[in-house]
Design brief:
The complex is a heterodimer of chains A (237) and B (269). Chain A is an alpha/beta fold and 237 residues long. Chain A is 36% helix and 26% strand. Chain B is built from nine helices and four strands. Chain B is elongated. Chain B has a four-stranded mixed beta sheet. Classes of the chains: A alpha/beta (237), B alpha+beta (269). Chains A and B meet through helix 1, helix 2, strand 6 and helix 3 of A and helix 6 and helix 9 of B. The structure holds adenosine-5'-diphosphate (ADP) and magnesium ion.
Amino acid sequence: MTAQTSIKATGLTKRFGDGATAKTVIDHQDFALHAGQLTLLMGPSGSGKSTLLAMVSGLLKPDDGTVIALGEDLWSLSEANREKLRLASVGFIFQGFNLFPALSARENVQTVLETMGLAPREAIERSIAALEQVGLGDRVDLLPRQLSGGEKQRVATARALAKQPRLLFADEPTSALDRANGERIADLLRTAAHTTGAAVLCVTHDPRLKDHADRQLWIEDGRISSETDATRQDRRS
Amino acid sequence: MPVLGIPLSLDPTSPARMQSIPQNLMAALSEPGAVLIDEADARKLGINRIGDTAEINRQRVRVVGFTSGFRSSWGAFVFASQATARLLGDDDRSNPLYLIQVKDPREAEATRDRLNANALEAPYTVWEKHDLIESSEMVWLIDSGAGASFGFSAFVAFLVGIGVTSQTLRGAVLAQLKELASLRALGVPASKLRAIVVEQAIWVGLVGIPVMLVGAGLVQVLAGALKVAIAYPWPASVTCCLFLLIVALLSGIHAVRALYRSNPTELLL
Ligand SMILES: Nc1ncnc2c1ncn2[C@@H]1O[C@H](COP(=O)(O)OP(=O)(O)O)[C@@H](O)[C@H]1O
Ligand SMILES: [Mg+2]
């Protein structure tokens, strides 16, 4: 594969606790994420998926190893510069949709765009365009509580996509959704990767998503392995 | 029973007239033995209706009417003509209080100063009207125990108000910690997150103030029904409102710190 590498992590290590209760969750692992692809990282609950995602996205400092994201050594940057990089180039989608209950779908998207320095009118236009992209063009003025779970996650997806990020991270985005809605989100992520060239990482323990990805990784006991073993294991069982 | 007399005039043009007692009630006092008491003190004195009689220092008096707004925090005010008052035992003829009206009000201060300069031999003090009001208010609020305990309970109520406001806001921020954390993950800087919370705080404050005013209005109605005179001086009210807004802002800003102490991965992933 000749895809451009957006994130290259080497020797990543994370431990929690100290002394007798210390536990190495990720142990000297290498990891890469490519532009224009949806990469799916699957593994059982507690295998360290969220920890890995947080370290390569600039949310959680690794105990060891380096992360080069978009050419920057992520964990050598100052907190303020890391924040700037996230604001300019990174989108997130979480299992809990995390929408402000008092703001409409459009306003939830718009808040982030305005922070990026967009003029209010441009922020509104781009918010509506992003909501149309996820199929919510007729729902822009509704509050989160007026939306179904699948629709809320699509608003959160629009909030992440509206930034036109070069890196997009999704942590268990489909766990609270039924199959149809979950697959719809996965397809949105994949389409976004293909059309915008963003590098998309989706971590999940949901095996239903595996056919929707461009590339699959497996994580267990703190070790990341490439797709072939995992899928083969999966097919056999 | 000790009786402290304060001379007032029945003459409507006198400076010592009682402006808050209707003219017809004042006129009724000219009858010997006629008195007025306040409606708030009537039950305390065993008076049920106009025309009831009572005894003060073995002298029979007849209640010819009720005043309102003169509830006394110690004994009870009894309004009588000077002739009646003398019967009731105000034997001490040396009148301790004089009310003086100066023809030209602009001369009031100069007159006061001139009179006070002469007060070396006979000990007396001359006050201007608003000085007297202010100093007697101060005596009540600060020197008397009643004022101190009132002030203290007002202060306690104020602290409770601050506590309720700040905890409400803190709760509001903690309730949306995940939403704020996801904005933080998206790179929204702390200053903007604070601005979002402060904007909400201002809304809480702006909604809270009318609610407070309605509450104060209800208290006033209730106090009126219980015949307790109550006033909200506007400087104190405005200060309270401003203070609550400031408390709302500070507690909003303070609550955002909870976001930065927490681990974003625990909140989000
Ligand atoms: N802040 C933390 N403190 C202690 N242990 C943690 C912390 N975060 C995660 N862990 C532990 O690390 C392991 C991996 O967690 P996580 O990355 O959330 O797994 P996954 O997302 O795959 O379910 C789990 O055993 C979890 O208990
Ligand atoms: Mg997880």
